[in-house]
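Our platform keeps sequence and structure together, in a single record for each protein. Such a record has a labelled line for the sequence and another for the backbone structure tokens. This encoding replaces a full spatial description with a residue-level series of whole-number codes. Below, we set out a record of this kind in full and without editing:
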Amino acid sequence: MSDTPVKLEEGEAIVIPRRLDPEDAQLALQQLQSILRRQEVVEALAHRQYEEDDRSNLLEGLLHRQHENEIKSIVNDLHPSDIAFILESLPVNERQAVWQLVSAEHDADVLLEVDDWARESLIQSMDHQDLIAATEHMDADEIADLAADLPADVIAEVQKGLTDEERAQLIEAMGYPEDTVGAIMDFEMVRVREDVSLEVVLRYLRRLHELPDHTDQIFVVDRQDKLQGTLSLSTLLVREPDMLVSDVMVTEYLTLSPLDSDADAAGAFERYDLVSAGVVDDQGRLIGRVTIAEVVDVIQEDSQEQALSRAGLQEEDIFAPVLSALRNRAPWLFVNLCTASIASLVASRFEDTVSQIVILAFLMSIVAGIGGNSGNQTMTMIIRALAVGRVTSSNAWRLVKRELTVTFMVGACGSLVAASFAWAISGSLAIAAVMMVAMICNMLIGAALGVLIPILRDRFGKDPAMGSSVLLTFATDSLGFLIFLGLATLFLM
């Protein structure tokens, strides 16, 4: 939705400010898809004509330019985040075609907003000069975010236009591992000395063109840039101007190390309701800061990665070629196939039992399924607790016992329902009793593994969520069949 002038009287007009609305991006995406479909139809019709038909080629060119102008008027009126959403929602060839029509003034912001898997295809469609133009005015931390996707010659060219300080910041930011605080921190912040008055600080702020984004506090440092405290903007505004910074600054504050995990930083922001936090080196010198904007991105990315990891997937372009998707999905599907085969092998060992009591074939899937569901509930809770640091070596066994207790109580109630169902369709109390015991046992196995699998993977430095549901399903299916059919063989045959 763009700024809209509204005429009041002759010569007078007001402008209605543009309102940010995610639904605008959804509507724009639908409009673009409609235009792109029309363009496909025009091209298909034109190709049916003879190549020497100049009138057909002229008409195709006119319609193509009309469609391009329509696309430009739609996308260039959107916020860069909305443009990024639209580009991510289009197949690669359409994405690159629309990207060529995005105004150059949006290039830098869109490249920073778009997801990594889509950014690669956008950069591939840009020439050397366009890439330099898009990145040369970025801050050092922003260039570092894109460095992995940018050609080396572009990085070298951009570095030439940086000051010595900015070049040092870029090299520093690029040197930190991914998923650390150093990789997401920025270098723009306001620093003051503790021996100046608030009036001096206010005069200093007024000389700045603008404050860095998400500035809620000013960092108080000494002459060696060692952090001494923080001064909130609210305190600066309400206290007497002649007071010294040292008299009103806060000396209890959170600091982060550049090598801290970004997930740990996100947890700290959530716990203490922070908007920004300083980053200090081993000598206590202030080298950067992390803001809520970066933290929100970290939380969103971790949430997406966790959801994908549980299914054994990594993030992928949903419009990527089939072979690329196969490389992402096939490994854990193959593992799942192997585990399912083992579960079927276990069931096949009880062929005689199932052939004589056919009803068991219908009931054993219930036992396996409810054990898997119980384990998934527990696993979800544990993975979340691991993510926020609530699980330690000292409380792991206590968690196992608690989950077993909860699962036993839930299983006892649920197994009565399952046993009643088994008795109703089989007419056998013995089958109902076997069903009840097997269901409780498999639920307890699922709960125990739901705790142990993510904890053990985390202990060995692996992603606790990666493929955990596949491993859990393997265990609850195989052991569920073994327990149910084993009990049936012992007590019913």
